[in-house]
Amino acid sequence: xxxxxxxxxxxxxxxxxxxxxxxxxxxxxxxxxxxxxxxxxxxxxxxxxxxxxxxxxxxxxxxxxxxxxxxxxxxxxxxxxxxxxxxxxxxxxxxxxxxxxxxxxxxxxxxxxxxxxxxxxxxxxxxxxxxxxxxxxxxxxxxxxxxxxxxxxxxxxxxxxxxxxxxxxxxxxxxxxxxxxxxxxxxxxxxxxxxxxxxxxxxxxxxxxxxxxxxxxxxxxxxxxxxxxxxxxxxxxxxxxxxxxxxxxxxxxxxxxxxxxxxxxxxxxxxxxxxxxxxxxxxxxxxxxxxxxxxxxxxxxxxxxxxxxxxxxxxxxxxxxxxxxxxxxxxxxxxxxxxxxxxxxxxxxxxxxxxxxxxxxxxxxxxxxxxxxxxxxxxxxxxxxxxxxxxxxxxxxxxxxxxxxxxxxxxxxxxxxxxxxxxxxxxxxxxxxxxxxxxxxxxxxxxxxxxxxxxxxxxxxxxxxxxxxxxxxxxxxxxxxxxxxxxxxxxxxxxxxxxxxxxxxxxxxxxxxxxxxxxxxxxxxxxxxxxxxxxxxxxxxxxxxxxx
Length: 548
Ligand SMILES: [Zn+2]
Fold this sequence. Notes:
CATH superfamily of the largest domain: Reverse transcriptase/Diguanylate cyclase domain
Shape: globular
Bound molecules: zinc ion
Number of helices: 20
CATH architecture of the largest domain: 2-Layer Sandwich
Number of domains: 4
CATH class of the largest domain: Alpha Beta
Largest sheet: 6 strands, mixed
Radius of gyration: 27 Å
Structural class: alpha+beta
């Protein structure tokens, strides 16, 4: 059967093709199950391979390759991948083979990870007509069909929205997840502490006993990493001679602190689902993905100077970035990432695009699973803050410096315990917009460069806030200012004036004596908050104040 005959065959048989959506379940629980870097890296690598290469392989096995029109033959079932990355996928596939395909992918996921499932939903495309005119020789048949049916395809956005909703419901309903049985007398895995230990692992003169799932993640993490993706897109990485960090302690460097960054474009779903048709949906998601790479890559290159990379990118797909980075770089890096993404993606999509970011700084020994959950909740509060000005959403970030290990998943709990003095007074103004945070970084570096305050002065002021009498603290700061020499006093007043202007600050009694307090909405309540301690903390995170 030639091509025309084939196209005639699918014309009028719309129900024979279905739109298929899939999304990987509980990705983060799998990736951050243990605090071992090779396992975290290996788990994300395994998931990435499954949703890209393995998905492609199984797809090709079930459906004829629609990439070349000439290869469509007699009983071929051409399928078309709209996207498959970031843990999810979308495709148009022949309805009669959809279940068989879904089963094959699901089995592959369980076989490879032992732990991760994927949820699929699908519905027949009722409007798919044949292509009009002739396809470009060698072009994708499905692209041609999509392109020449733009008007009819408008309905598919409705179908897509319905399937997205259905997918969310299915994921919520899901009650079965793979489970590895264990019993009380079996030795448990030294890493996850959950499953029976079946492998002996030698590392740094220590012998560890680990389960098969942790072992699989580890061997994957030792042979592969995300730089393979970067190498394909930028020769810099191909020629890069440095090493990737072997464990979190190495990544942390001398300070022993690392940070997780979780960044995510704001309102991206809305932008995608406002597309006119599937073709535009596909091109928009590609633009977003390219923007993520183009904003992240130059920043990573800036930090790739030593023998060992001070970061590890765990996920970079869709509109998401999850990475671990040496603590001293995290704040500047986060700010740059936000402003670069905002600029590049807004240009690419010709729209005002913003991003939100959560970052947690913690000791490399602290369980990464907790740190990630805290970061997730910081991201959520940054997202809400981004939307605060409805007319003009702004990129925002929130972050947390964990000074002592606390077992919690909630950033609010920790922020409250560190910075809430009373229901009305807070010693932090987080989250911040990019503009605000840029000023805090600038003020912090001024303090250091011009030696405006010594470390002991900073400590003394910080401690005085803990005394809980704000009036005496303000008097203490005024006293410290009075003791400075005239040039330092002038510089100090200058930075306070900059903060005052940006955050509309006042003195405690509403005068402009020492303007350190501004109104801020925190957890829905309007409270008094100061950015001064945040500036001090920035100095601490990025290597301390002046020692003089
Ligand atoms: Zn284990």
